[in-house]
Amino acid sequence: MLSTIWNFLVTLQLFNQSDMKTIVLPVTVFAEALASYHSVSRFFLVVFWVWMHLLYFTVTNQTFGTSPEEDAVNKPNRPIPAQRITVDSAVTLGWLLAPIDLALSLYTGGVPAGIAICVLTSIYCRGGGHSHWLSKNGCCAGFYALFEYGATQIADSSDTLNQNQLGAILGSALIIFTTIHAQDFRDDEGDALLGRRTFTLSFPIFSRITMPILLAAWSIALYLFSEANRALMLAFVVLGAVTGVRFLTLKSAKDDRLSYLYYNVSNILHSLPL
Fold first, then answer.
1. Of the candidates 170, 177, 173, 183, which has an alpha carbon nearest to the alpha carbon of residue 243?
2. 18, 20, 45, 235: most buried by Cβ count inside 10 Å?
3. CA 62 from centre of chain
């Protein structure tokens, strides 16, 4: 019995595994940085709320359309291609998660963002939001904004956010919208086989040129307009520049995976100046 429960929990975590460093960690840091009120209990509520809503998205995304076949090429360790759960069982899990997440949002106070995440998940998976790089980038920026909005509300135990908090979330969404194609370089080979129209495949040279330019520009802008510690901000600018140059000059799948790790560290740190 305990072994069955443990295997089920591991399967749930594997749905979220690749997005722990891209969603759960940066959104939690972002929310705690923006919150004017802090407590241990609210912190764990933030983590659990983000993780559960992310789970609804990942389960839905990994069961829709040709996702199982794509994951077999790009991410074979995910639960479905690893044969830890069947597609039908995962679809049922996704339908069960929707009311569970709504109840969780009612309890924690993140209802608007929670409902919007469910709607945007449907747009992304069933409405074709994933099929073109422009709509995909827009959806990704929307997801980050909604996760950050809901997490900040929960962390702050507040029904409304102030102007500075909303401005920070908007700034974060713009950064994500213009740079999130960083995640596509590592999957180019598999995406090309599947005929996907990612930004990096549609504009293979230009997409790499944009990385050092955009990461450096955003880093410098945050340096100039932030009141954060200048030494910390200078390190942030250097990290952005190094990451951008890596994407431009180092082009193997292994290098792109490491560059994307640097990008995620940079993404976590951008919450501090914002």
1. 183
2. 45
3. 15
Q: Where are the beta strands (DSSP E) in 12-84?
A: none
Residues with Cβ within 8 Å of residue 74, at least 6 apart in sequence: 187, 190, 191
> How far apart (Å, rounded) are the C-alpha atoms in residues 199 and 184?
8
Q: Give the type of residue at 56.
A: Y
Structure letter (DSSP) for residue 21: I
pTM score, whole prediction = 0.92
Which residues in 105-245 belong to E strands, given as ranges?
A: none
Burial (CB < 10 A; 0-12, 13-18, 19+), residue 53, is buried
pLDDT in tens, 84-121: 999 999 999 999 999 999 999 999 999 999 999 999 99
**What's the number of CA atoms in the CB half-sphere (13 Å) around residue 66?**
13
Q: Between vectors from CA 193 to CA 189 and to CA 198, what angle results, nearest 5°? A: 70
Instruction: State the fold for domain 2-161.
Output: Tetracycline Repressor; domain 2 (1.10.357)
How far is the C-alpha of 149 from the C-alpha of 105, rounded, in Å?
12
